[in-house]
Amino acid sequence: HGKENVDSRHNRGRGGETTRFHTVNVAQPVRFSRKCPTGWHHYEGTASCYRVYLNGENYWDAVQTCQRVNGSLATFTADQELRFVLAQEWDLEEKTFVRKDQRRFWVGYQYVITNRNHSLEGHWEVAYKGSSEVFLPPDPIFGTAMSENENILCAQLQCFLFPTLRHHGLHSWYAENCYEKSSFLCKRSQTCVDIKDNIVDEGYYFTPKGNDPCLSCTCHNGEPEMCVAALCERPQGCQQYRKDPKECCKFTCLDP
């Protein structure tokens, strides 16, 4: 990267033979877009990816769905991360929610009830023991589908679709019956994604998403490292041509 073009010239090598240097195209710096698979939103602050699943599932089924994509129901480390999630456009559809006024997602907290006397007293816990998360929700609004026998309720984060409300970070927390069906928010670590949108495992070679299909890198902690670029000569006998954006050194001739 960054090398100057080498002009075509002749030099005398050993024995008097002629050595020819060819001008080649220089690889341009690449702006990677590789941190999350398609459909996921990336947040640099936690090096994480987020995705809302609109199919209604109960809390326990939502947990399993997130695990199948190497993630978990989302929890938050700080208010800035929560604000990032609230500001996103999740392409929500009216028909995907159980109730018309509901804009809620299961997230990775549970409310443990400790006293049912006059008011429901309890506290929030992170649903996954051993988590390093430090952000816990404030006192919740209790859902309408609560059971008198349940001592554990599950967290729903309510978002607003109106842009002005969304960007002001307005939201509510609900403690709801865990067997209610709802959309849900998954969170996973950022990852390497290749030029064809395949997820790449740690330590493997891949071509990152970007504008250079001739780049080969190693995936390390979700980042492409130790990248090597192949440089292609222009196709012979063709004046006008187009590079294939996803195949290295593949051209289409545009001559009549």
SSE layout and pairing:
Blueprint: E1 9-12, E2 18-21, E3 41-43, E4 48-57, H1 59-68, E5 72-73, H2 79-87, E6 104-115, E7 121-126, E8 141-142, E9 152-158, H3 163-167, E10 172-176, E11 182-189, E12 192-193, E13 199-200, E14 205-206, E15 215-220, E16 223-229, E17 241-243, E18 251-253
Parallel strand pairs: 6-11, 8-10
Antiparallel strand pairs: 1-2, 3-4, 4-11, 5-11, 6-7, 6-9, 9-10, 12-13, 14-15, 15-16, 17-18
What attributes characterize this protein structure?
mainly beta; 2 domains; three-stranded antiparallel β-sheet; 3 helices; elongated; 256 residues; Mannose-Binding Protein A, Chain A; nine-stranded mixed β-sheet; 18 strands
What is the CATH first-level class name of the largest domain? Alpha Beta
**Which topology of the largest domain does CATH recognise?**
Mannose-Binding Protein A, Chain A
Quote the beta fraction. 25-35%
Overall pLDDT level: 76
- Overall 3D form: elongated
Supply the CATH superfamily name of the largest domain. Answer: Mannose-Binding Protein A, subunit A
Distance between the termini: 34 Å
The biggest sheet amounts to: 9 strands, mixed
Protein name: IDD protein
InterPro entries: C-type_lectin-like, C-type_lectin-like/link_sf, CTDL_fold, DGCR2-like_CTLD, IDD, VWF_dom
Domain C-type lectin: 45-187
Pfam family, one: Lectin_C
